[in-house]
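During the no-cost extension, the postdoctoral fellow (Dr. R.K.) reprocessed legacy sequence entries with the updated structure-token encoder. One reprocessed record is reproduced below for audit purposes.
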Amino acid sequence: MKNRTLKIIATLAVALGGIVFVATQSAGDVEYYVHVEQVMEKPNEWLGKKNLQVHGFVVPGSIHEEVRDQTTRRTFQLESKGKVVDVRHAGVRPDTFKDQAEAVVRGALALENGALVLTAVNGEAGIMAKCPSKYNGQR
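Re-encoded structure tokens follow.
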């Protein structure tokens, strides 16, 4: 009887350890896909989350680029349903990235000098964009 109880306790301990291990390992890999208006309605829910993917459209005239330390850095605004978020990105941009392009920006949301800023992952992976003229239902 004593041997059986020890086996049950050991089995439960191993199972619980496995559950805790899986839960802690996968918690950092969570990705969030939201639209700009969702982020701007409740920004505190999204502050500091990594792997945040925000979907919207590039605001015309908002793209500003400069080269510093041999890296192209850009700022622009992303809009959806009347809500706008400022975006900062460094590195290569997709060829299809331009005014009014539908885009998904992958990065993290933070407060900087009292303003919300979405800082994109460096490189082309931080911005995914499609050209609006190619996808406007032309027949």
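The chain has two domains: 1-29, 32-134. The longest strand covers residues 102-112. The remaining legacy entries will be reprocessed before the final report is submitted.
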